[in-house]
Amino acid sequence: MRVIPVIDIRQGIAVHARRGDRDRYGPVQSCLAPSADPLVLLERLHAALGCQEVYVADLDALEETGDNLVLVAALVNHVGGVHLLVDAGLRSAADARRLLDIGVGRVVLASESSGGPHQIAEIGRAVGFEHVVCSLDLRQRSVVWGTAASSIQSVDAVLTSLSASGIRSVIILEMDRIGAETGVDSHFLAPLIQCHQGIEILVGGGVRDIRDLLILRDIGAAGALVGTALHRGTISREDLAILAREACHGPAQAGSW
Q: Is the pLDDT of residue 95 over 70?
């Protein structure tokens, strides 16, 4: 299972996300880096933790107040061998191609910026499904859409629709849990992952430590988006090595969920 660090950017600096309440995000304070400079933070994530894949959210683009495209381009070229997944509020194939053209590894098509599964599928077909990952942004376990009245909110139903359309990779992002260190929502996630094994499912929100990562691995998640736990040092490079070693073991007993 992959551990994917998160860098949220607003007005050129990395900020600390908490429960999706963006008005209250402040500059990130990380044990890994001396400042909230996203370039420095990316360097340290790679050097200190060996991360090869990083999720970047351009909050200005998501909120339609501007963008950090120049900074994203700099991040793409800043550390060799690190692939970026970028959420920049994409609403069209042209938006997606703009990011892919500057070297972004995969673009994130987020439900909160979309009118529904059909729009996500159309963009995926236009740019190639291998270049996209869909993010299902949840509140209280229901999918949040850019045009809320237009689409189904059941995660199971949306996953079924996306899989049928050709989407191969999905993030289940529980915004209520981002930065809150509440633990992962395994009772909710486990049956979804079990029922949709044809899709790569990544999970974001609530990860506190190595125990949560092991739980996600054991219920079949392909990866975890992690921010706060890395910045606070409650997940270390040694923990990531443990996760890699434990990969050869069988799943945990159901009671450990």
A: yes
